[in-house]
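Batch manifest line 643
LIGAND: adenosine monophosphate
JOB: complex structure
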Amino acid sequence: MRYRDVHELSVSNPRFFWRQKMDLIDWMKEPSKVLEQDENGFFRWFPGGVLNTCHLALDHHVDHGRGRQVALYYDSAAAHTRRRYTYRELRDEVALFAGVLSGLGVEKGDRVVIYMPMVPEAVISMLACARLGAVHSVVFGGFAPHELAVRVDDAKPKVLITASCGIEFERVIEYKPLVDAALEETKHPPQHVIVFPRPQATAEMKDGRDLDWHELMHSAEPADCVPVASTDPLYILYTSGTTGKPKGVVRDNGGHAVALKYSMKAVYNTNPGEVFWAASDVGWVVGHSYIVYGPLLHGCTTVLFEGKPVRTPDAGAFWRVIQDYGVSAFFTAPTAFRAIKKEDPDAHLRRQYDISTLRTLYLAGERLDPPTYEWLSQVLDVPIVDHWWQTESGWPMVANPMGLEPHKVKTGSATFPVPGYQVDVLDDEGRPVKRGETGNIVVKLPLPPGCLPTLWNNDDGFRESYLKTYQGYYHTADGGYIDEDGYVFIMGRTDDVINVAGHRLSTGEMEELIGSHAAVAECAVVGIDDQLKGQLPVGLVVLKDGVAQEPAHVEAELVQLIRAEIGAVAAFKKAIVVGRLPKTRSGKILRKTIRRLAVEEQIVTPPTIDDPAIIAEIRTALRQHRVGQYANLPLDTDDADGI
Ligand code: COA
Ligand code: AMP
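JOB STATUS: finished
ARTIFACT:
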């Protein structure tokens, strides 16, 4: 069947379509239905089905002749270590660690928070939770203690798993003090903290609460897979919304396993036994879906790379890993290639490696900007696939479906809706727009399997954020258009979420924090286009009358505040004190105008602006602080004063 027919069937008769795909996985008990609506009216896939995701990812393959195939290559450019696990070895390690967790009282439905760097023990922890039917919540290592504390309080875990440290370039970042600080702040601390010791740092242990990974493994008994319902949660993954409270995206077991297995062939065109590498982090959805679950459910070999695209040790790191492990499908964020392009513009390093195993490059996390696409097209002779999805969907929503029918690429477009997703564009009143016109990107309900059924302990929040705006549709909060040929162009968020180096962050949360500073009267944080990271947050701050502190001091404190409360990953480096903010006559801050002023020479003054004179004031402030288009102005020009 051609792509168009497959897609048409999937949206016109989703029950029939997914009934067929249901057989892609080995159920312990077949679902009694394909789809139903629960008491909230939320859609639930494959009710009545019983399975275990860890069984499907590991035991199933061991039982079917893949025991000796490598399941996971660990390559740490940061710690100069390599390790490999066959499916049998990984299954045995996971079973043993599941025994550890079970010995600590972790049972089906209990939550476990995982705050770890990119080490195999992070993957082992996730799969061990899945084995017990416990719900993991992985928190990205670049988040500060406060963010960890918020997630702990929401999930109320029995156990937290961490490592003694992470490694960022040459910097050792001790995790244990961060965990200790977070647990000081929480109202619901876990009973136990398991610490995986790494040679680069020694963790200080708290008696009675903290336990050593190796000691626990030494005395543990392996645990078996616990059968769970298709609709039981597999994990929670928090993601940024428009406020300071992150949203706990829930993933179920059954729909997730079916969807990921389907995507591995339909979207990524990989076959069991091949090597699939997603250079992301287990703390993000890409890491969950395509470092851990997708490749393993499909019987592929996955690669866990602890390092960066550059400076670990150079801009050839990605090419080296592709060569060393025979990677056939590679997935990363465009920002990583922008970093490589900056350091090795002519891709000299690429020629030092044999990357002939590579069949396709997949990019997501942010829009694949045309210059990066053009550069990649010159450097590589394989298809370059931009594809669009979100933490909420858990797998691609729009892509060039390489395993169904590859299509001609249109630069700047993520190509076509993936089977299962009916993507539409609506105006602000909910009316469909014409082809080629920009509007709000929505997906018609029901969302396919694998997408979030709700938010953790927050059904109202789920309704509010995603279902309320457009009746019968999932609101993606991305804007864009569909052209005459049906190609989907995703142009950016329509809310206060920004994308910094492929990391999703909330400017609303940053504003809340800045607003809590004693000297601040009001502020606006906007995402300014950046050549390397896609966007960078910049704060404009108005001080309270009578504040005696020097603006430079306030600025430094605000930068430190965001770093301490959200984390270094926010990359918040500029808080600019201004006399006032641009507003409409009704008092709404004109954030879009600030963004434009930073990157455009000329802008049309918004007709609703309260006082047009402020345009020049803000432009001067942005220029003085070298924001956006002014980033490369020499520092010794007159207006550099006050920096
Ligand atoms: N633990 C602790 N700190 C972390 C961290 C982690 N896991 N990840 C990032 N940080 C810190 C960094 O050290 C840096 O701190 P600094 O301000 O003190 O230098 C800060 O957070 C910002 O990190 P990052 O966004 O990674 O920027 P960078 O300048 O260190 O590297 C890139 C730039 C482009 C190389 C890097 O962002 C990258 O590899 N991006 C790929 C993104 C990606 O994989 N996204 C996932 C979606 S597919
Ligand atoms: P996250 O939930 O962290 O995966 O971030 C999801 C957001 O990243 C989306 O809502 C988009 O704004 C953006 N995004 C991800 N992939 C793409 C893409 N291929 N094109 C455009 N935007 C993307």
